[in-house]
Amino acid sequence: MGVSNEDAIKQFQSLMEVVDEPLKQTFKNMHQGYPTETLARFLKAREWNVHKAHKMLVDCLNWRVQNEIDNILAKPIIPTDLYKAIRDSQLIGLSGFSREGLPVIAVGVGLSTFDKASVHYYVQSHIQMNEYRDRVILPIASKNHERPISTCIKVLDMTGLKLSALNQIKILSVISTIDDLNYPEKTETYYVVNAPYVFSACWKVVKPLLQERTRRKIQVLQGCGRDELLKVMEYASLPHFCKREGSGSSRHSRNGTMTENCFSSDHHFHQQLYNYIKEQAASRPSLLPIKQGSFHVAFPEPDPKDAKIAETIETELHRLEDLDGLDKLL
């Protein structure tokens, strides 16, 4: 017989009281004053099995200590031109907040190329945005709404998704595994918009492989999803690619200024993030890189189920690629 959620959290708390001091310190940086909510996230990720959740969290804390994740917000990507190149090829940004106060994270899945730097820079950039979200954005949102806010909404733009996405599976798998193991249950809902045929074909074969908990979070919307998204956020918080049918997710906004495009390095979110990292680095000069170089983070081994999903996507893309080639010959 399983224990109640409340009892599970109490058991988890007791186990965490005896972990080593370095792990307690990095856990404090993680939970930002909301330890119970953090424990609950790890319990949800392990179906409320206390021992599995405890192992997951301890592994996560060890990963943070060994890879100096607590210091990653003092490790700027330099020079600035390289940072801008990464922003142009790893399309992600904060477009606003939902009506309930959750950050709205926009992701340009289809047009992200990940071809301007090594995988280590993209992983560094991704973790920095995770940490900035968790250590700066969410605590401010929690304070403004006078309640714990520990999750976000993600709007995934599939504009431009092509069979060449096969080349990105490796890096996307690395980033996904880091999120699954170290930032579990941080996304309330995934909204998929502007989905082309190639996504629909992959989704059909991948959906049955996902856990029911994950499937419930994913909503595939018609077109740019504007009308459905307006039910959960104000128009001003819509990502730029959702504000008009067919607008697409452009690296250089066709439907407004660069500052309206939340993927652009000129957008206020990325300006604030980069300035914050530079300020943190300046306040701790001993952490400044001596020369240009990415902050290497150890890549965790993917869960066998996640590896199976990546393999399935790769197989389906190969199949579609073969069919596309055959169509061109006929």
TrEMBL record:
Per the database record, which ranges form the CRAL-TRIO domain? Answer: 79-239
> Would you say which domain of life the source belongs to?
Eukaryota
The UniProt entry, under PROSITE patterns, shows: CRAL_TRIO
Q: Which PANTHER family match?
A: CRAL-TRIO DOMAIN-CONTAINING PROTEIN, PHOSPHATIDYLINOSITOL_PHOSPHATIDYLCHOLINE TRANSFER PROTEIN SFH2
This chain's protein is named CRAL-TRIO domain-containing protein
